[in-house]
Design goal:
single chain, 240 residues, alpha/beta, five-stranded parallel sheet, two-stranded antiparallel sheet, 6 helices, 11 strands, binds S-adenosylmethionine
């Protein structure tokens, strides 16, 4: 089996993952830099309706995804990689919030399995079971403090954040170095400085003079200062 990072997504809506065929991710898969599989959870059901959910124990609104098809689907997908540890990412608004640091950590995993919930989420025993398995590492991940209808969009966000960091995926690796959240300050990470391209004048607005000066030291100092100003604005007023 291959040594590149493999990503498997389990969902009841495989078509939702069609964007994985486009742009950077599509090209990376075509070039063999990564492997991607998308799997229909309903293929692991046994009844004619392909049921994947049931009413919640203890009562309450909505339906909960049943553990049985999830267990079967995850076990099958684990066989697609010979990685010693399969990292299971369970998408949930109750998980740890995605950051650039988590995306960087996940690039080191050779096999990532994304479990896309729907309805009121997945029976909690699925997470508990795989947490107890020595060949699995489980991470419950949220993409922010809001509730989506399902984990598919969250999976696309996380995969894009990871895959663009994999060597060879972005043509010029230097463009990753000065990005927002990868820039370090003494106390925090910084967001990127504002960027400009040609023309030098547009609708009465000029590109800052220093960027046209050719003075690399002055340009670096200006950019650093701008990053710090932007970051301070965000931390003082995080809603803006
Ligand atoms: N009842 C759940 C709760 O309050 O925590 C919300 C379930 S949500 C309607 C259905 C599915 O969407 C979740 O199981 C999860 O897979 C996904 N989802 C929703 N919001 C998400 C978020 N912010 N980050 C990651 N996944 C999310």
């Amino acid at each position: 089996m291959s040594k590149v990072n493999r990503f498997d997504v389990i969902t009841i809506f495989p078509d939702y993952l069609a964007p994985l065929k486009l742009s950077l991710i599509g090209k990376a898969a075509e070039a063999g830099l990564i492997e991607i599989g998308v799997h229909d959870l309903r293929a692991q059901t046994t009844d004619v309706h392909g049921s994947v959910d049931d009413t919640p124990y203890g009562g309450g609104a909505g339906m909960v995804m049943s553990p049985e098809p999830w267990g079967k689907a995850i076990d099958l997908v684990a066989e697609l990689s010979d990685a010693p540890v399969h990292e299971l990412i369970v998408l949930t608004p109750a998980g740890e919030k995605l950051t650039q640091k988590i995306a960087e950590e996940l690039t080191k995993s050779r096999h990532l399995i994304f479990a896309c919930g729907r309805y009121e989420g997945i029976d909690a025993r699925v997470t508990a079971y795989y947490q107890s398995q020595p060949n699995f590492k489980v991470r419950e991940v949220s993409i922010g403090d809001y509730v989506l209808g399902g984990g598919e969009v969250a999976t696309l966000v996380i995969m894009e954040a990871i895959i663009r960091l994999i060597p060879g995926v972005i043509g010029n690796p230097l463009s990753l170095e000065e990005e927002s959240h990868s820039l370090e300050d003494e106390n925090s990470t910084l967001v990127e400085y504002p960027t400009y391209t040609k023309p030098a004048q547009w609708r009465g607005l000029n590109v800052p003079e220093v960027l046209l000066s050719g003075n690399h030291g002055a340009i670096a100092a200006f950019r650093r200062e701008q990053s710090q100003i932007r970051t301070t604005k965000l931390t003082r007023n995080p809603e803006k």
